[in-house]
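Good morning N.,

You mentioned wanting to compare the apo and holo forms, so I went ahead and generated the holo version with adenosine-5'-triphosphate. This is what I fed in:
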Amino acid sequence: MNEIKRIAVLTSGGDAPGMNAAIRAVVRSGISRGLEVFGVIRGYEGLIGNEIKQLLSADVSNIIQTGGTILKTARSEEFMTAAGRLKAFENLKNQDIEGLIVIGGDGSFAGASQFAIEHNFPVVGIPGTIDNDLYGTDYTIGYDTALNTVVDAVDKIRDTASSHNRIFFVEVMGREAGFIALRSGIASGAEAILIPEVEGQLKKLMKTMAGRGKIKKSSIIIVAEGEREASIWEMADLVRKEIPGSDIRVSILGHIQRGGRPTAYDRVSASRMGIAATEALISHQYNVMIGLVNNKISLVPLSQTIKMHKEVNRDLLAIVDLLT
Ligand code: ATP
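and this is what came out, ligand included:
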């Protein structure tokens, strides 16, 4: 097998804090192993548009502490087509790039896997998404920072909730998954958590609130964005009717959850994953995602991480019932 000499790295899908630490690790570990490393600007869009530039060690100075991604990110309709992926392949080939590291979520990996199969091109994925919804890894880059951001915001909201005897419904990110809601809810002492993976929670919430109305005046209810039983506004209305005279507010945390300085945990994990991705390419272990399982680096076939669904830890829900 030929020795790999030139590799490229890109970020794709939603940005996540810690992506920069992963880029830095890929660049520096690659250079120290004698590779030339290239950065692709704007994800698959930049790959198709040939926005590829060499990255030197100095190009990744002072980025480990920053959120977002220095390579920028994008969603690309064109990469969903065979013609778009062919353009991307030709751009890599023309620059003699022999391996690609994709930092992103499940959509990015679906694209990466398709591309790898179609063009027999070595690809390695690094899980970079605040949602933590990828099968084959306990943890994705950005999740820890997002959790801490949510907990910080909810702590602040609780000051107001308890000062005014209010009930706050707080919506957190997670279109398909309740990982952020579940852990941030436990960490902030939420009275209830509603996530898309669990049914029948609205009924339970109504029962809890009916009982609590008389005992406790303020409450925090965390709702994942993807919750399907009712919208957060409908839930607030239902509880308002259930507890006449209650002061109920809705707060949607939105994009503050994506940004900010990555936590130490995100920086360290992203660094470990970046190095592992470079090593995987060097050792010809292709079309895999780098995972962290029980705090150890693992390699999972991309095909598996795309196909399989990561379950939330339902034991954690029991904690909420027990402790509130
Ligand atoms: P996040 O979890 O933050 O949303 P993601 O990687 O899942 O990140 P997506 O928007 O789903 O984000 O996907 C990113 C890009 O990956 C898409 O814009 C598209 O270019 C590419 N992609 C997604 N699915 C496919 C697919 N089935 N085939 C080819 N390319 C795909």
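The longest strand covers residues 166-172.

Happy to go through it together on a call whenever suits you.

Best,
F.
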